[in-house]
Amino acid sequence: MTKDHQPMKKTSSLVTLQPIPDQLAIELAYATADNFTGKSIYISSKCLLHKKAKTSLMRALEMLEPLGLGVKIWDTYRPLSAQKVLFKAAPNPEYVSHPETGIRPHCRGIAIDLTLIDNHGNELNMGTAFDDFRPLAHHGNTQISEQAQRNRFLLAGIMSIAGFTPIQSEWWHYQLPDSEQYPVLSESDIQSGLMPL
Question: How does pLDDT run across 166-197, given as a tens digit for each residue?
Fold first, then answer.
């Protein structure tokens, strides 16, 4: 059994997401060096999400299917130790939640970083790349193309109807509301295999 497919050793509210052809692609940015830190943070590419967030994500996929669209996921559950690494690399709470005092929705398993894709797996134009820490990535920014604005509005509308809320500074980030009712989960809590113990 590979590291990516070992069961979690402790019962939790997180479930593993698997790709769905033409609907759900998974490319965890922090499991590769292709992210703003320039290095791999996770040692596994397992994609974990809270059960309630998965239900909402499936609802979003149902709404996107008649449009011939799906989503690509860049990040979901993030161990607290990974949050510390990311905050050290980008210590700006507008974009990376403080590992001690911030809301840390990724560490609760209720946040998802994603974009829209067509039925060939191509990403739709959103005006900026993932983890672009500039005002251009903010919701409502009109300095990007009209097509990119429409694509952001579509993603925001679908995710809102599905039960997620955005954060103003990142067009790709959505989370369940009332995030603080969900516990922050460290790697030692669930032993996901994403980070060394």
Answer: 999 999 999 999 999 999 999 999 999 999 98
Answer left, alpha or beta for residue 6, where phi above 0 means left and psi between -120 and 50 means alpha.
Answer: beta
> For the whole model, what pTM was predicted?
0.92
* Residue from 43, 31, 22 nearest 113 by CA: 31
Burial class (CB in 10 A: 0-12, 13-18, 19+), 128: buried
Q: Is 110 exposed, middle or buried (0-12, 13-18, 19+ CB in 10 A)?
A: buried
Write out the CATH class of domain 19-188: alpha beta
Domain boundary assignment for the chain? 19-188
Catalytic one of 94, 100, 146, 170: 170
C-alpha 52/C-alpha 136 separation (Å) is 30
In the residue annotation, 170 being an active-site residue is answered as: yes
Which residue, among 110, 157, 137, 142, has the nearest Cα to 36 in the 3D structure?
A: 137
